[in-house]
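Q&A log
Question type: sequence-to-structure
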Amino acid sequence: MNFQETKEEICNEIIFALSKVDEREVEVFIDNLLDAKKLFFIGVGRVMLMTKAFAKRLKHLGFDSYVVGETIVPAIQSGDLLVAASGSGETLTTVNVARLAKEHQARVALITSSLDSTLKKISDASVRIPCPTKLHLSDEVPSKQPMTSLFEQSILIFYDCISMIIQKKLNISEEELWEIHTNLE
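Response status: OK
Response body:
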């Protein structure tokens, strides 16, 4: 396979996976983001990298957002939201952080591939992006890519879609986004 064929295959897989996302789940997820006082984000590995990008996008949109594990993370409280991302819904670190968030009366929103998982049971809201994970292959959305690449790629595009929807809902201009962007570069 050459680059163009590989690109087409990967992009088609992402489009197919995201076409399976339930619009009602997305609306509930966005409502949870908009209703939260502060936003906290957790994931592991490449999922965390994609989730950090989303946390930064929301910071640009004016949200009070934090990545769990960073040095400047405040206490989570009632009225706050933890966005937990885990393809399997069983990632121990993410499960444990979600349980802690619930102990502190915060809400949990899950981005996952799993139909049923420990994290899904803990979560107040969830969005399912059906892709293969380390715990199960997906008959619904198969992938020729290695490991969990399709889930990681799909959540990045999902997050950017959510960011654009929120930007439009809040009527935030491109200029306003650049005003909030870092200027210490």
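Response note: The chain has a mean pLDDT of 93.
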